[in-house]
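Entry under discussion copied across for reference:
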Amino acid sequence: MDQDIAKKLFLEGGTFIFLGVPQETQFGIDMQCWNTDEDFRGIKMIPPGLHYVHYSPVSKGTGDVSPRSGFMHYFKKKEFLVKIWDKNLEDISKDEITEESIQRLKDNLLNLDKHLAPYPYEIWQKWKLLTSQITGQLAEKLSPESGVIRASVELLSMSNEERPRGVKLPETDPDKESADNPTSGQSTAKRVKRITRDEKEDSMLPNLKPAPGASMRFTEIPRDKYPPGATPGEITKHYLDQSYTLELMIAQHDEPLHIIGELQFAYLCFLVGQSLDALEHWKNLVMLLCSCEEAIHKYRTVFFHFIQTIEIQIEEMPEDFLADIVMNKNLVYKKLRELFRTAHITKVDGRLLTSIEKLKDNLTNKLQWDFTDLDTDDEDERPVVVKLRNVTE
């Protein structure tokens, strides 16, 4: 590390004290991860800003690694954050640490220093790009109420009435019902027949729900893509151009750019936190942002930062996930092609156009993706002509 930077971080950087962590625990900050030794006490010289602290207990007997847990924290200049390991929970202790205890650790910092690992500064510039639109307040808003982001969320039993999905099968006996009422059995049979195979399979799954405070608090993407009272023509328009849905999402944030912050947050909860729920939300946000026509002109700054963000995110994707995108040209490729087509047809210009052209060139060179013929539909996107049979035939 450059000596001037080292001196600055020594004077202004944050300190994270993590006491009682078992040896060989997987511990990391941002995109760096280590196995701790017996002298480990935490991290020093942390650049002020948002950081992701994460950890995974490791079984002494088998070496099995538990699902990753962690939290995001915005470190202020010279901040001194203390956490203690709970051996029984194999997790961070939920007990409050007294100010007196924290002050004693501060007074003993000179002796603690040799047990603190320096922040891996070589990852800092890339980390800043990945978190450019995530404020401390936004990270707190999106994190679970417990504050802990887990790769594997604890699930609890729930009643059938609480289930957000699935179908409760009729509890009545159709034969008995039809004996009392000749038409009721027939109607019951029709209701049962309408249940799809997926719904029936879902109805047989265990009734589970996330433990209170354990779920991510992502902004819910509206199911209805159109305003109330929309005509059939308007409904079709809003499905093709989902600017209305994006407007509803942006309205739930303090400022438009926070939708990009949420995209970054979800991506990091997948990349670093190993959360599949976060990956699913990230995919849905990418699909939404790539499906807007009017909004790309109204929210030019949002889409400029979306292009900047998606480029660095694709660069940092895990190899197996990226290989799937390249080989199968999955939704990331298809939706970006749709976005580029929209920008081409609606004549986006200026700084946004420059960033789009740069991203197209980079993806073409690195991944051999084809973004030519944007003014024509792909084969699987062309309208399908269906010949309808006459009801009298």
The chain has three domains: 3-130, 155-209, 218-381.
